[in-house]
Write a structure and sequence with these properties.
The structure is a single chain. The chain is 63% helix and 0% strand. By secondary structure, it is mostly helical. It folds into 2 domains: 1-36, no CATH class; 38-78, no CATH class. The longest helix has 32 residues, at 39-70. It starts with 7 loop residues before the first helix and ends in an 8-residue tail after the last helix.
Length: 78
């Protein structure tokens, strides 16, 4: 895999190959892969990951709200 030709799908595939059953990264891979990043870079990655997680959670909530509304329920936030 040449550096210039790495696609996001290839990165995702490699990370998934190196996950444990509980979805954490295997120790060796984490050390070799994440260990290459500086603390600032890791914090930046973490912030980006947290933002994506928040967006996915909100999308799931919106999906449930839409489903309940389709059944005739009135949905409001407390």
């Amino acid at each position: 895999m040449a550096r210039d030709n790495i696609t996001p799908l290839q990165i995702v595939g490699k990370i998934r190959e190196n996950q444990n059953t509980n979805k954490t990264l295997k120790s060796l891979f984490a050390g070799q892969f994440l260990g290459k990043f500086s603390t600032d870079e890791l914090n930046g990655l973490k912030k980006s990951i947290d933002k994506i997680i928040d967006k996915q959670k909100q999308a799931e909530v919106d999906e449930h709200i839409d489903y309940l509304k389709s059944l005739g329920y009135k949905v409001s936030k407390k």
